[in-house]
Design a protein that fits this description.
Length: 268
């Protein structure tokens, strides 16, 4: 039976997602089950591909449903809204935590302290994300933000002994949020005497790399809900430094012109 509101036929019963390992995709698969959406299909792809498809749909004012999260520059570029999630499948407001390998405090105490003190607001992250969206190289956008926010950066480096060229390997997933945060903290570590490399990986290898010590740190753990499975798998082998950002949100997102308001309406 067709949706009374027609959204299923208008979107071929497809929800546009990102890479399969992402926590939001696990939550979205659970959402299809919990809301009884057998006719709907979750399309796997990548964060960049999802945004490209969103832009095309909006240009043509066509209905589209994506897996979305905040902070994200797309909310300032497009008129978007989250669908209500009365069953709470996507969890409540979350944090993004910084996680480091065991022994980093011994091997690079200054870097450990900077990573431990790293904390910023969603507006700071969105500032860097929108520079990158406008075409800035992420490392340049990071350098500009650091130069514009010396007071915030001083809070991170306060009391940290300078590095002596020790190598620090940061791992991250190519979500716009983590491209921004990882480039900012990399630049701050570099400016404080460390030789930093950034390695873009998928979610599983990001946690595994910290746990097996092949990577030193990441600032990309969405907790307590989205990355819980990965966190529980590796928690005895990693050091959780707590949030570097508070107040994230995840769920199904549609352009304002799509006249549905809740995930429950996908069933009707
Ligand atoms: C896509 S969110 C930034 C994180 C996740 O879903 O794993």
């Amino acid at each position: 039976n067709e949706n009374a509101n027609g959204i299923g036929a208008q979107t071929d019963y497809q929800i546009i997602g990102i890479e399969p390992g992402a926590g939001i995709m696990k939550s979205a698969h659970q959402m299809l089950k919990d809301y009884g959406l057998e006719k709907w299909q979750l399309v796997e792809g990548s964060s960049a591909a999802m945004v490209a498809v969103l832009k095309k749909a909006i240009d043509k004012q066509e209905p589209i449903i994506i897996t979305g999260w905040s902070p994200h520059w797309m909310f300032s570029s497009f008129d978007l809204k989250y669908l209500e999630d009365p069953k709470g499948v996507f969890g409540k407001a979350e944090n993004i935590n910084s996680i480091v390998r065991k022994g980093l405090d011994r091997d690079a105490p200054g870097a450990y302290k900077i990573l431990d003190q790293f904390f910023w607001e969603t507006s700071d992250m969105e500032n860097v994300m929108s520079e990158v969206e406008k075409g800035a190289d992420p490392a340049d956008a990071a350098k500009k933000w650091i130069a514009d926010n010396p007071d915030k950066v001083t809070k991170w480096t306060n009391g940290a002994q300078a590095g002596k060229g020790e190598k620090i390997k940061l791992v991250y997933v190519a979500w716009d949020t983590e491209i921004a945060s990882t480039n900012v903290i990399a630049k701050v570590l570099e400016q404080n005497g460390y030789d930093v490399t950034l390695s873009q990986v998928e979610v599983g290898p990001m946690f595994a790399g910290i746990a097996n010590g092949s990577a030193d740190a990441m600032v990309a753990a969405w907790l307590p809900t989205t990355h819980l499975e990965y966190y529980n798998r590796y928690k005895k082998d990693i050091v959780d430094l707590g949030p570097n950002l508070k107040g994230t949100k995840l769920g199904l997102v549609v352009p304002d012109y799509v006249k549905i308001h809740s995930i429950e309406e996908l069933k009707k």
